[in-house]
Amino acid sequence: MKVLMLNGSPKSNGNTALALAEMAKIFAAENVDAEIVNVGNKNIRGCLSCNGCSKKGCCVIDDGVNDIAEKLKVADGLVIASPVYYASANGTLVSCLDRLFYSIQCDLRMKVGASVAVARRGGCSATFDELNKYFTISGMPVVSSQYWNSVHGAAPGQASEDAEGLQTMRTLAKNMVFLMRSIELGKKEFGLPEQEEHVFTNFIR
Question: Strand 88-89 and strand 77-85: pairing?
């Protein structure tokens, strides 16, 4: 099994990376292939709303988002981790996710999703909610843990002192492995749920 992990922090070795590393230990112990991709330190712009991806089959902007899309296509699970900025996710990460989820040309249903928020003090629950919306609009089961998926720390490395936060990360990774394996068995036995043709209803006609 494969898990793609996106680090939305501009600090590739900061507290967000520490939280992901704690999950990666569990994935390694469970023989799950996990790859961490640093997004927050990349020059990724927002969506142009050009809809060119519907014709090209990928985003028209070549800044790394399409590379992430190819990794996600073959992954069984996706972890999105972000530091908290003004009770929200990192802007570069949000730009990446907006374009990734809109332009990707694959069925994301039943790929497992988990989000992680890292903060000095507050704003984690709002960021956690923001990131989960990418999963729930895409038919992706959301993994839970023993607490909301958050870790606390200000200066790089301080998250290592958050014993409960790190335990939450380990539990999250274990639950993610279980859910991915269970879905894989379910797909073999029952297949994916039958999908209706998508109906789009506008509020202004």
Answer: antiparallel
Among candidate residues 135, 152, 153, the one with its CA nearest the CA of residue 143: 135
User: What pLDDT, on the 0 to 100 scale, is given for residue 205?
Assistant: 66
The pLDDT score that the predictor gives to residue 203 is 86
Enumerate domains of the chain plus CATH numbers. 2-190 (3.40.50.360)
How much is the pLDDT for 165? 98
Q: How many Cβ atoms from other residues are within 10 Å of residue 164's Cβ?
A: 12
* Low-confidence spans in the chain with pLDDT less than 50: none
In this structure, the number of other CB atoms found within 10 A of the CB of residue 10 comes to 16
Q: How far apart are CA 8 and CA 119, in angstroms?
A: 13
Instruction: Give the CA distances from residue 195 to residues 142, 149, 198, in Å, rounded to whole numbers and listed in that order.
Output: 19, 30, 8
What is the rounded CA–CA span in Å between residue 198 and residue 205?
A: 18
Give the CA count within 13 Å in the CB-facing half-sphere of 155. Answer: 2
